[in-house]
Amino acid sequence: MSIANRSAGRDVHIYSANDSATVLGGLILTNGVTNDNFHSMVDIIFIFGQDYFLRDEGGTTVQKDDHPLQPGNYYIVTNGSITVNNEPWLVRTISVASGTRVAVFRDAVRERDRRCVVTGKPALRADHGIWRGFEAAHIFPSAYEGHWNKENYSRWITIPPATDSTGTINSVQNGMLLRADIHSLFDSYDISINPDDNYKIVCFGPDGEGIAGNHLDQQLLQDPHRPVDQLLRWHFRQAVLANMRGAGEPVFEIDFPPGSDMMGEIMSGPMAAERMEFELFSRLAVQ
Known about the structure:
Elements: E1 12-16, E2 25-27, H1 35-45, E3 46-48, E4 52-56, E5 72-78, E6 82-84, H2 100-113, E7 134-138, H3 145-150, E8 175-179, H4 180-187, E9 191-194, E10 200-203, H5 218-221, H6 229-244, H7 262-267, H8 272-284
Parallel strand pairs: 1-5
Antiparallel strand pairs: 1-2, 3-6, 4-5, 7-8, 9-10
């Protein structure tokens, strides 16, 4: 079985001006991506030895402005080196976790948001304790709590969970309430939020919901318990790395019906060790 990758459908392609035959990266262009946004993404996926500028296929220099990025080929012009950033991205797949630690997190996120903060759809039956179709999503995945602790990401958390034993990774500041289908896209880095561009919603694949280019609403941003910018920025960086480098990172199978060989499919697929680590710790971390 062939493995899909994230380059499928790209209509923006990045090359070195000195080598127009080798694709260095690219993007599936959706609404809201500006020339300035594109420059910031290029700054994430490449390391430059000297200053650079971007030129389109017509030879025009691409300015750092708010004009919408256009489909096509773009060329990096520099007198220095261009190195593709090999910073790892943390593999995550869709997991709806359970357990007492996550229940504290879930309840805090529900109480604060009461709607999908990306689409704005309200949880109409929340007053009756019915949240069907809505899920509390971790911005930084709970399965990587060891990485969280190692990098001291807790330094960004000012509101710890109500129960100390849940760990700072389960702070309400590391979560958002999302529609279940939007949660799936967020966890797979198909959508993200750029806190450095007025909390713009960025889609890295086809936008079937009409959300690309929208912004998180002010109700959430004015809430003192809102998600912290550093974690949103971390997620956005991960999404850029996962979707825009080289030929594209793999897209993982997540639909394992009862009776299917989930372990076998994971082990025979790409990044098997990383996926197994995620699946293991996503189950252990929630207890």
